[in-house]
Every structure is written in structure tokens, then in C-alpha cells.
TrEMBL record:
Protein name: DUF1768 domain-containing protein
Residue ranges of domain NADAR in the record: 20-164
Reactions catalysed according to its record: 2,5-diamino-6-hydroxy-4-(5-phosphoribosylamino)-pyrimidine + H2O = 2,5,6-triamino-4-hydroxypyrimidine + D-ribose 5-phosphate; 5-amino-6-(5-phospho-D-ribosylamino)uracil + H2O = 5,6-diaminouracil + D-ribose 5-phosphate
TM annotation in the entry: none
Superkingdom of the source species: Bacteria
Amino acid sequence: MEPNRKYDSKVYDAEQSCVFRKTKEQFGGLSNMASGFPLRINNIPILSSEALYQACRFPSLPDVQSKILNQRSPMTAKMVGKPFREDTRADWEDVRIKIMRWCLKVKLAQNYFEFGKLLESTFDKQIVEDSSKDDFWGAVRDKSDNDKLIGVNALGRLLMEIRHFYNEHRFSYNMFVVEPLSIPDFLLFGHPIQVVDERINFISHLERIMHCKEAIKINYTVKPSILSEEVVIISDIPTSSLNTLFIKDKTASTKKVAAPKDKPAKRKREAKKVGEPAEKAKGKATRKSSVRFLKDQPMLPLS
Ligand SMILES: Nc1nc(O)c(N)c(N[C@@H]2O[C@H](COP(=O)(O)O)[C@@H](O)[C@H]2O)n1
């Protein structure tokens, strides 16, 4: 979806689509009103993509932003901004789609596994926000045919765009690094919104799910301009865990890492020399592994 053009309304078949209305429903996590997808901008915790989106209306009113961001419920975050709507940034109609897309990218980068899985679960079906009256962000049930939803469904369409992005750029630099929008006054509490960079958090998450925390040593080298340069993360990851991880992932065919066959045997020999039990040595087989994030390329574990 491109900003600055009049959007066309579409008709969706509810039965054939992934529809969300309530946050606790199957696809409810796709709603900005869903809890459980926390964000962090400029090191400020934000409880939902709705709160972030609404805060972006008021870049020159930090007090209103604070009020919005202090709400526990995403719906209340939207509601408390309502009395200030006339102070919404002047170009809001022109930038709101861009801002919503950016919010969703941040939601994905910072909730990679949960939100990614949810997007994946929609396969290539239409995603539609079922709304009682908002036919811009969502679509509204047709009065004469309840199975039809009619509206611009801007949120659903952005989610489908994000799903495509996720499928194309999985484990890529672009997935974890979300640059701020180049629009005037993209501010939070008076400060320019900074790049969101989730690479280290993602790796830490991998460490946790691979249960090999103590075995991992991360040496994080950041070049001064992280936006234009790759970052190399070097880890000592147990080979078996790395394999498991990538085999578990649906992209295993392209991301699978072949275990270096010589290493366990070598370690076994070494272990024998020092009297360590062979079984233990085998289990501990590790290798130096680099995980490299390259702009526009998948993240590839390199041997
Ligand atoms: N009022 C309301 N209730 C819900 O349950 C909703 N899902 C929404 N829609 C969301 O509101 C956001 C846009 O709000 P404004 O354009 O600023 O009014 C967006 O996240 C919609 O998905 N609204």
C-alpha cells in the first residue's frame, strides 16, 4: 500500500479469510489492540502497537504521548488520545499508513517468533480486521450478507504486506533492523525516534531456546554506521543445537547447517587423551560459528 492515494474498498469473503475482531480469537494477535507484543522505542517500553501508533499522532505533545503510553490497555491508550485529536500532527492523513507499517515492522522485529508464527499461520489467505464501523483500517460486515466484509481493510492489507516481507526476509538484517521513518518530527518525548536494532536480542533469544547459554560467547562487533554495514556475531554454539534450530525452522532446506563431521570425533580423541568420558565429549561438540546479518540477505550461519 502506498500512502497519499485514495484507497479502494474491497470485498472479502469472511469464510475464506483470516478474520480478527477480538484479541483473544485465533488471529486476535494481529490486532494492534492485542496485548502480549511489547515494544521498545528509544529504550522506552511500549505495551502495544496501538499505543505506539497513537503516540505518533502527537509528536509535539510529549505529555499526551506519556498519557497514551502509560495506559495498560491498548484500547485505553487509543481513547485517552481522543480529547487531543485536533492537535494531531497536520500531515497525519498523509503519514498514518507509513507510521502503521513502521509500527508493524517494529512489532515483528521485537516479537519475532510469536508474531512471525501468527503471520505464518495465515498462509496466503486474506487477512481482514472485522470492524463494526471502521471501514478504513478494517472492513465492515455487509448488512445483507454477513459473510461478506467490505472496506479498505488497510490494517489487514499492511499485515499481508508484512507477511510477505517476513516470508522473503526471514532471518535477515531487514527483519531485525527497522529504520526510523524519514518524515518530519518523528519524535518520542521530544527526541527523534532511533533505529530499532533487534539483532543482539534475537541472538540472545536463540541462546535461551537452544539451552546452551553457558556455551555461547558472543563477540559483537558493530561498525560505526550500523545501518550501512553488516554486523558479525561470533558464537561458540554447540553444533547439535544449531542444527536443531535450523531443522526446526520451516526454512530448514535453505538454512540447515551441516555438522562438521570431523569435530566430534576429534573431540572424542582429545577427550580420551585427557580421560574425559567420550559420551560427554560428544554432547559438548561445538564449533566456531559466525552468524552474519547482511542487508537484504538472509541471515546465514557460516562455518
Ligand atoms: N475503536 C476501535 N476498536 C477496535 O476494537 C479496533 N480494533 C479499532 N481499530 C484500530 O484503531 C486503530 C486506528 O485508530 P484511529 O484511526 O486512530 O481511530 C488501528 O489500530 C485500528 O486497527 N478501533
